[in-house]
Design goal:
The protein is mainly β. The chain has one helix and nine strands, in the order βββαββββββ. The strands form two sheets. It has a seven-stranded antiparallel beta sheet with strand order 1-4-5-9-6-7-8, with no helix packed on it. A two-stranded antiparallel ribbon has the order 2-3. The longest helix is centred in the N-terminal third of the chain and has 5 residues.
């Protein structure tokens, strides 16, 4: 579970435009023959579509590891995005946040699913009450 007391509000500040090279790198350095034309990218604009409805949470636990969301990652959550089947969402269950994949059972009930071989394959909270706070729109990881 994620602690709702550690919500990190997104507060847009000055734009931070950093160089984005048009070259791609597979497993080494760009070729000297490549055209290194450069443009600027602002990560605020790249990651955040709706600043007023976005917040960040730090992830604890490994229930979503097979979806590429690992312990220590920061997730951007958009409260205005419409959740659909297959969306990764942040939901409140018993006063705590959890991040899971939104799904529907064959009977049409909404449920949450973990994505980890260490978690049961059956739906998480099938038939129980949960409240969706938002859709995960980005994962930020430090190397």
């Amino acid at each position: 579970m994620l602690d709702k007391n550690v919500i990190i509000d997104y507060a847009p500040r000055l734009a931070l435009a950093l160089p984005l090279l048009d070259s791609r790198v597979a497993a080494g350095f760009p070729s000297p023959a490549d055209d290194h034309s450069e443009r600027k990218i602002d990560l605020n604009e790249h990651l955040i579509r709706r600043p007023l409805s976005t917040f960040f949470l730090r992830v604890e636990g490994e229930s979503m590891s097979e979806a590429g969301i690992l312990p220590g990652d920061m997730i951007a959550v958009d409260k205005a995005a419409s959740p659909r089947v297959g969306s990764v969402v942040v939901a409140e269950v018993n006063g705590e946040f959890t991040v899971k994949r939104l799904d529907q059972t064959t009977e049409g009930q909404w449920c949450l699913r973990a994505e980890s071989r260490h978690w049961p394959k059956h739906p998480f909270l099938q038939g129980n009450q949960f409240r969706i706070w938002g859709v995960v729109v980005a994962v930020v990881r430090r190397c």
